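FW: tagging you since you asked about this chain on Friday. Here's the raw sequence from the shared folder, copied in full. Didn't touch anything.
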Amino acid sequence: MNSNGVHADWSAWPLVVIDASAVPVSRAPRLTLDVLGAALERGGDFAVVARLPTAAESGRGRQSPTERLALIREVKAIRPGLVERCRALVFVLSGEERQKHRAKLASSGKFWGCPVEVAEVLADARALAGARLSAD
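HL: got it, structure written out here
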């Protein structure tokens, strides 16, 4: 875990597992983007599993409009690479969190540029990501 409260496990490359459950909700998209960018720099196909915080775990927080716009611009800049090399982005969310964010999740594949899935537990998320990697 780094000083930001985030742990990115690269030991199973090309599968990367992010544990951002200890950071404020507002910081999770930025941290996910940072890992996706680092994965693109490594080269080759990859998949990312992300355990994100819930409001209950890390306190409420929203990105400012400026932060949101900056994130959108950065995602747009790396999206071609994600389309080409990211085989899966799997979020670990409870059923309650999944329901709460259903609309965002429905369009998140288009936003990120790679297939997005959701699992309730880390083991299932890893299995989904692994299946996407081996499907190619």
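FW: The longest strand covers residues 86-92.
HL: agreed, and Residues 7-134 form a domain with the Transcription Regulator spoIIAA fold (CATH 3.30.750).
FW: great, closing this out.
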